[in-house]
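Re: the 341-residue chain
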Amino acid sequence: MTLAIVLIFRKAISNLNKSTYAPTKLVNLAGCLVLMTLITYACKKSTDNGITNTSIIKTTTSFIDSAYTPYKPAISTRWDDNYFYVASGGIPAHNMMVGITNWQQQVPIPQFYTGANSWTIPLQPVYATIPMNTRTNFMKGAIAIAVNGIPIFNALNNRGEDSYLIGELDNWGGHCGKGDDYHYHAAPLHLSTISGLKPIAFALDGFAVYGSKEPDGSTMQSLDTCHGHIYNNGVYHYHGTSNYPYVIGAMKGKVTTDPLTLAPENQILPQAFASPLRPATTPLAGASITAFAATGNNAYKLTYKIGSAFGYIDYRWDVTNKYTFIYTSITGAVTSSNYQR
């Protein structure tokens, strides 16, 4: 392409030198120069970030909304010209916590991911010049929002450990953070049971996350280092898998990071934030969670086991957002605490 531009330019100069009516030729030459500038810019754009098509079509709100619709009214959605917003209470319809063998004594409570604190998905993704790797970034906060309104965090915890491999996650790929906020660290592939071939999440850079199949139902094709690809001349998307990095290896799209949080514990903005209730607790050595169930309206019971002994946490909240926690240790000792939101 560059050689062709040079040849066009030389031909234009040659014609100008032979001309007896230079003004007309000068106009033609100017046109050539404008054309070459546009061609050069187009060539540059075609090779940015190793992707031949960098013109990303703005995501339609109907497409995103169709992915979230099966999980309404537990969640709600809205949008403006730039963002798609997802509001949720932070509690999924599926069970939680069972299967955790490395437990920090946190339990899931509702979160206020609503209004100005809703999850935010950009409608116009833009390819990053250098994708930010999740091995060295985003060990704080979410990197995607699942279609059931539950945030998805980095596969690595804030200590740089694979949360799944060290037993921190339940049978659905999630656990609770220090704010008693439930979130995933592994891909919520189980959502495909309801979502079918639609996305199971959207990354906070605006690109969709699909399950183990392509959008047309075919076998998932090879993934790049970001854990995604462009398939069948479509738009770039990620895939959830059962192996690391599970959801996103690097953010293919441009994101803004919080200037107050430095890598690797930097976080993407805008995003929603949890509302802590209790003081953060510490890991309980040797504990594994064997059961978690609702015991009434706004009430849950978690059962854990250490050796052959069982312990329990019963908790509930009322319409005034007063929370009552009753703790039964493996020795049978009972304590309680109350918190007001």
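The first strand starts at residue 75 and ends at 79.
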